[in-house]
Design goal:
Elements: E1 2-4, H1 11-23, H2 39-43, E2 55-59, E3 62-66, E4 71-75
Antiparallel strand pairs: 1-4, 2-3, 3-4
């Protein structure tokens, strides 16, 4: 799944909403995203040096990638 991210919705919210949609549940039913990645750093992806992108992490059994263009990729 590929989805653009950015204002006005913070990226950490977009990640949780995307995974919740895939899991057919409410975002509050998912585990804490903060246990996996710093939400503030995630939301500031546009300020991260290009050499540190893409951001890649695991969440709820999915591989999440966010690239420098502000695109969220989710793989199961």
């Amino acid at each position: 799944m590929k989805r653009p991210v950015g204002p006005p919705t913070p990226i950490h919210i977009t990640v949780k909403e995307t995974i919740a949609a895939l899991e057919d549940c409410h975002p509050t039913q998912l585990g804490s995203l903060d246990m996996v990645i710093d939400g503030e750093r995630l939301d500031a992806v546009s300020d991260i040096p290009p050499g540190e992108l893409p951001m890649l992490f695991q969440y709820c059994g999915y591989t999440i990638t966010i690239d420098g263009t502000g695109t969220l990729y989710v793989e199961n």
